[in-house]
Amino acid sequence: MTGRNAAAVWVFFLAVYTLCAGGKTEAPPVYNDTWTLCVTETVTAGLPPSRAAVGSITQMSIVRSLAAVDRRARLSAEETYYRNQVWFAARKEAAKKIADKQNQRDALLYQGNKAWKYQKEIKKIDAELIGLREALAKVDADAPLIESAPRFTLTADNLAYRVPAPPAPGKEYSFCKQQNVDGFLVSRLTEFHERLVLDVKLYSLFARSYNYEDTVIFSTENIEDALLELCDRIIEHVSQSPPAGLIVTTEPDNALITVNGRFAGRGESELVERNAGPAAVEVFADNYGSYSETVELTGKELTELSVRLPPLPIAGITVNTDEPAALYRGALYIGETPFTLSAPLDARIPLMAETRDKKSASTAVIVDNSAITIKPIKPPEENVVDKARRGFYGAWGRFWIALPLALVLNGMYASYVNAYNMPAAVRTEEEYNTAQTYRYVTIGAGIAAGAFGIEFAVRLVYYVYVSNKERSPLVPPAAPEAVSASQAEIEPAAPPEPETPPETPPTPEYGVAGETGKGAGQ
Q1: Per-residue pLDDT tens for 254-272?
Q2: Could you tell me which residues are beta bridge partners of residue 71?
Q3: How far apart are CA 353 and CA 360, in angstroms?
Q4: Whole-model pTM?
């Protein structure tokens, strides 16, 4: 019984190992999970420099648009090409291993080994050849798996907004191998009757040819819309996914709708056709809260989105002025004061009031059901120095226009007079009248130049006078010496009377002790 129990336990663990460990199989690898495109430089040969700059704008717009593409759906022909590519590479490697092993077997004849060792090596290599041939048969039997929706990406240079020059004709395939890409996009900008024509072509490695071409014609004023339309078509071809539809309806029915930053309608958008993927929808309306959401669009499907904006609490504020004034909300005229403005509670609104005599005041108010009084003030008058300077510059310009003109006319008049007075000249009345006309015009031009010269001198003197009069002192005047409060309260004293000299003291007598005198010490 013990042996039977041990055998049963061994069989149980062998079954568990077979189910848990031995039953595990590795998933077959999936090849070519990335499709890389290279955007080349836009060719602008033949365009003037002012228009050639549009080339950099077009290529950067194409790069930015294609950078947003995430996946590419493969066509059957493309999938077959990459499958065969992987298949042939795997078969070539397996066949090379068989050829190398066969050459190793043939080389045993020339190594001079003993018969028993030779037979041993032959059996070993033959066993390995059987395994290699089975591996080759497995490669032939099992087709490799190719990613049907590979990740789409641009080259590292493109993502850094660097574009290489397009390849020369006939060098397209080697260009793809050199850049290690699955395709590249070339574009050419030409001029046609004051407008620009942009031609784009896409070369695919699997087809070894250009399999997509498109053209758009536009003027510089609508370049943005034209490039956006063209990029949408390029994205549709590159992603190989059909467009998706989107309709947005809102409440209130005057709300502004944008899709990916572009205006799509008010209240209800028209059918918006976009490439499959995320679309940013935003809805705005006055006195309502805003709405923003990213919607995932699916190819060949229509997505309907209904948005109801929450109303904001409304309050009012009464705006008054001391005298009637026009009231503007920002730059938009809204009425005359006094005016009650309704807006969302706690909204901050810029206002400007302007009276008929051009007094104005600007402020920003917060709507809180209160009243506010705006006091427009008169704009400061123009600085007299600036006014004198502007008048001086105007007179200077008029004088230096009139003076050369007067000199030119005087020279023309002198030429006519000299020609008329020449001895061999044929004098006619018409020439005389022409000379007189130039004479009067020259006199008038001289008078005008003289008047402008006088004006120039007067305005120069006035400008210098006003500038000196209105100038600020370079050194401020010295402040009066500080005086203490006690000194400030004391009245000036009368001048002292002259002192009378003291009377001469009597001369002491000699011989008296303790008194000073000539004889004191004698």
Answers
A1: 899 998 888 888 888 877 7
A2: 151
A3: 5
A4: 0.46
